[in-house]
Design brief:
By secondary structure, this protein is α/β, with parallel strands linked by helices. Helix content is about 30%, strand content about 20%. It folds into 3 domains: about 1-235, Metallo-beta-lactamase, Chain A, CATH 3.60.15.10; about 245-355, Oxidized Rhodanese, domain 1; about 365-470, Oxidized Rhodanese, domain 1 (3-Layer(aba) Sandwich). Helix 1 links the parallel strand 3 and strand 4 (about 45-50). Helix 7 crosses helix 11 (about 325-335). It is globular, with a radius of gyration of 24 Å.
């Protein structure tokens, strides 16, 4: 028996390769097929099944391309309706992979079709569960992604999730290994652990959602409390996973075209392409193609792309660090952005050598910012962190302008106003500054500093006080 967790940090996502006697199964594969094909080839195995735990919302799964290349059968649990051929498994159904047995446990709650796969070893002993988004390490899947207005509510789904955990998962032996689809950093749960696997016994002790004394009503209340709106691309990715998508090889071939500056500019003008600059924030602010938007590869790249670029069909041109162009195309495709049209060959040095114009973002460090603020406490400051971060502590007189929801809040700022932007480390503020400049807000200043250092710079910080808690005398 061979089990490998293939973990992708930027999506906080775990796919799984399982093998026995020359037969293999892949669970919840990412869009690119190479990692799974390569493992099977190196180990002399054939991929027999592709098991999907549910319709993923935070990434586009690779099930269709992988099935096309291997002949493997795509398997979903009960209630999964798709536009392509698959095996719709029944609750309790089993599949043989070499000497291993995989049993289907229908565990609705995160979504109606959510399914856990129980792996039985060569002796028929329960060895591991692959829980998808039903059970995480330290958390459970959010129950609001598949709700339907007028019919299925998040409370309904949370109730199903309670029943699934109590009736299907918790009765299993404590030594069963829990392999989830996500870890800390994913928006599919509220408070996941940074650990990527555990045992069921450990989770019964530490996971709030598995408390033995927890009532159904308490569970529903706790798992639905404090849920932020899901990123806009979640529903679109889930739909692609249901209906299908473009061949990954075609996407990669088109997106990995090297375009010299003149051709790059011509394609941008012809297709109305978004120029996406994925270099470091330090290099971006010093010089970029005018109207570029910055989303750095070394941050949470795919989730930010999904949150900020609202059209999956948006034509995209790439400015990337040398050698990372193909990586950029791949990571865009993982979240459904298949319309990359190429990248700037030679990068910014080639652009400037061709006599093309560049733009910059006025960027300052903490010392300069502190001096300006103390000289003018009425400075217009946009804090682009999440509302919860801002409420915990923020600079006096700053305006919370969260990057996550920037498209919905553009009407709150004025084009003739000067703004200083900051976040926690400078990444999000650089993204926000690039978006504002691309939309015609020219007088923006980016503060590249750690928010944790603001107090040391003797800047006045305050916490948000809910009006209901104020002493009314």
């Amino acid at each position: 028996m061979y089990i490998e967790q293939i973990y992708t940090g930027c999506l906080a996502q775990g796919a799984y390769y399982i093998e026995s006697e020359g037969e293999a199964v892949v669970i919840d594969p990412l869009r690119e097929t190479k990692p799974y094909l390569q493992r099977a080839q190196e180990r002399g195995a054939n991929i027999k099944y592709i098991l999907e735990t549910h319709f993923h919302a935070d990434f586009v799964s690779g099930h269709l391309d992988l099935a096309q290349k291997t002949g493997a059968t795509i398997v979903y649990g009960p209630e999964a309706q798709t536009s392509y051929e698959k095996h719709l498994a029944k609750d309790g159904e089993t599949f043989q992979v070499g000497k291993l047995t995989i049993r289907v446990l229908h565990t609705p709650g995160h979504t109606p079709e959510s399914t856990t796969y129980l792996l039985l070893d060569e002796n028929g002993k329960e060895h591991a569960i692959f829980t998808g988004d039903t059970l995480f390490i330290g958390d459970v899947g959010r129950p609001d992604l598949a709700q339907k207005k007028g019919s299925l509510t998040k409370e309904d789904l949370a109730g199903w999730l309670f029943d699934s955990l109590r009736n299907k998962i918790m009765p299993l032996p404590d030594d069963v290994i829990v392999y989830p689809a996500h870890g800390a950093g994913s928006a599919c749960g509220k408070n996941m652990s940074s650990e990527t696997w555990s045992t069921l016994g450990e989770q019964k002790q530490s996971n709030y959602a598995l408390r033995a004394d927890m009532s159904r009503e308490e569970f529903i209340r706790e798992v639905t409390d404090g849920l932020l709106p899901p990123p806009q691309y979640f529903a679109k990715n889930a739909q692609l996973n249901k209906t299908g998508y473009a061949d990954i090889d075609e996407v990669m071939e088109r997106g990995a075209q090297a375009l010299p500056p003149a051709a790059f500019e011509a394609v941008a003008n012809e297709h109305g392409a978004l120029i996406l600059d994925v270099r470091s924030k330090e290099k971006f602010v010093k010089g970029f193609v005018p109207n570029s938007v910055f989303i750095g590869l070394d941050g949470s790249f795919a989730p930010w792309v999904g949150a900020l670029i609202t059209d999956l069909q948006q034509p995209i041109l790439i400015v990337a660090p040398e050698g990372r162009e193909e990586e950029t195309v791949t990571r865009l495709a993982r979240v459904g952005y298949d319309n990359a049209l190429g990248y700037l060959r030679g990068g910014i040095p080639a652009w400037t050598a061709a006599g093309q114009e560049i733009d910059t973002i006025d960027t300052i460090q903490l010392k300069t910012f502190a001096k300006r603020f103390k000289a003018n406490p009425e400075l217009a400051i946009l804090d682009v962190r999440k509302p919860s971060e801002w409420e915990a502590e923020h600079l006096e007189n700053s305006q919370n302008f969260p990057l996550d929801f920037i498209n919905a809040h553009m009407h709150e700022i004025q084009r003739d106003q000067s703004y200083h932007l900051h976040c926690r480390s400078g990444y999000r503020s650089t993204v926000a500054a690039s978006i504002l400049k691309a939309r015609g807000f020219q007088d923006v200043v980016n503060v590249q500093a750690a928010f944790s250092d603001f107090g040391d710079a003797d800047l006045p910080l305050t916490t948000f006080v809910c009006p209901s808690t104020l002493n009314k005398g």
